[in-house]
Structure formats: structure tokens, C-alpha cells
Amino acid sequence: QFFPQGDASTYAHFLFDAFDADRNGALCFQDFVIGLSVLLRGTVQQKLEWAFNLYDINKDGCITKEEMLEIMKSIYDMMGRCTHPALRDSAPAEHVELFFQKMDRNGDGVVTFEEFLETCQKDKDIMSSMQIFENVI
């Protein structure tokens, strides 16, 4: 309903996996409540850990360009083709390159949680976005 012109199915799978803490392929009420609790009332570090986990698709402790590209494509698919101005097909890959320029501090081609945490904590825009759910409930 939020993105009527897009396809949210792939992004929904990534969100599901982020909430599925025990990785058993099912969301129990506890998984859902713990995830919401972190997003709504967690510390900044807990929220950043949750976000990192969302991007780390294979859960190996680092984010690769391929993983980030999958996430970005799913986000652009969710937004749909009817955005104004129209998005270029290269937009997801360009977004990934910008992400890695900012986050991959040692230039080894992957983003570790430590790099992610350090970069996010120094970015005022990211830090203010961590407060987005503060007053929801």
C-alpha cells in the first residue's frame, strides 16, 4: 500500500530474514517483538546492528557489493518505475558505489560491522535517522 506502483516482495523477504533471529524460516511472535523493540527503543548501536544484519544477507559478518546491490535493487523495485523524475537503471549500482566509498574505510571490498558502526556514528544524517521511530509509541 505504501508503494502501489512497485513490487515490495523481494525487499519483504530481506526484512523477514532480518526479523527471523533464529534463522528457522518462521517468525514467531517473540522474533517480531524483539525486532520491533530494537527498532523502536533500542540503543543506537542495537539499531545499527539490526540494520547491518539486514544488509548482510548471508550473515557472514560483512557486507559485499553483491549483497548491497541485491538490497538496493529490491528497494528500487519497491519504489516502482513511476517515480518522478524517472530513475536510471544504473541507480542501484551507483548507490552501492557511494555506500562503499563512504563505508569501506580500508578499501578491501567489504564492509565490516566495525566500519559500518564507525562511519554511521560519525554521520549526522544517519544518526538523526536512527531517531525516526523514537516517538512512535
UniProtKB/TrEMBL annotation:
Biological process according to GO: regulation of potassium ion transmembrane transport
Domain EF-hand, first and last residues per copy: 7-42, 43-78, 91-126
Record-level Gene Ontology MF annotations: calcium ion binding; DNA-binding transcription repressor activity, RNA polymerase II-specific; potassium channel regulator activity; RNA polymerase II cis-regulatory region sequence-specific DNA binding
Top-level taxon: Eukaryota
Pfam families: EF-hand_5 (PF13202), EF-hand_7 (PF13499)
Listed SMART domains: EFh
GO cellular component: nucleus; voltage-gated potassium channel complex
Keywords of the record: Calcium, Metal-binding, Repeat
InterPro entries linked to this entry: EF-hand-dom_pair, EF_Hand_1_Ca_BS, EF_hand_dom, Recoverin
Protein name: CSEN protein
